[in-house]
Write a structure and sequence with these properties.
Layout (H helix, E strand, L loop, with lengths): L1 H9 L5 E3 L4 E5 L13 E5 L16 E5 L5 H13 L15 E5 L10 H4 L1 E5 L6 E5 H7 L1 H10 L6 H10 E3 L13 E2 L3 H4 L1
Parallel strand pairs: 4-5, 4-9, 5-8
Antiparallel strand pairs: 1-2, 2-3, 6-7
Helix pairs in contact: 2-5, 4-5
Length: 195
Amino acid sequence: MDQARAVDTNAKAGYLKRLSQNHLVAFNRSEPNSNERGPALTYVSLHMKTYSATPRDIEHQWYIVDAEGMVLGRLATAVAKIIRGKHKPMYTPHMDTGDNVIVINAAKVRVTGKKAEQKLYFRHTGYMGHERFTPFAAMLEKHPERVIEKAVYGMLPKTALGRQVLRNKLRVFADGKHTHTAQQPKVLDLNKSEK
């Protein structure tokens, strides 16, 4: 708005005319019947356009996170932010701008309070009344990868893109070994922000 006022005051009378709050129209010719070439009118926008990432703009990086001794929820929020791409200035909600994350030592993740004894994972067999609850300790002992996957899934949008991001960008390993050395992942230290 201030920019438009500055243009209006510096321009000759009748040269610029306000079309709406966000647009001006500039008369390129001093006289309407002149024989000059080119467009008679130019529309000038006063606001920047919203940036939207395209597939050729997106580059996917690889990161590795050591989950040993980390709190489950804090780890999951940081990982969800990275695989969605919210840590990048080019984040676009409908595009996959996120990076790949490898989580190692999933079996050594910790929870606070009484969650280790009280937290339950729900599933349903499909038959009426057949609800199944798995305690956190049993899940961590038998399938430690699923503990982190379920925590991250809960922090992603429940859409096709959210499921695709979880399936394609998150790799969880129970111990310190992983199969993605060829991707040369960068080490991401999340413990320094937690202290």
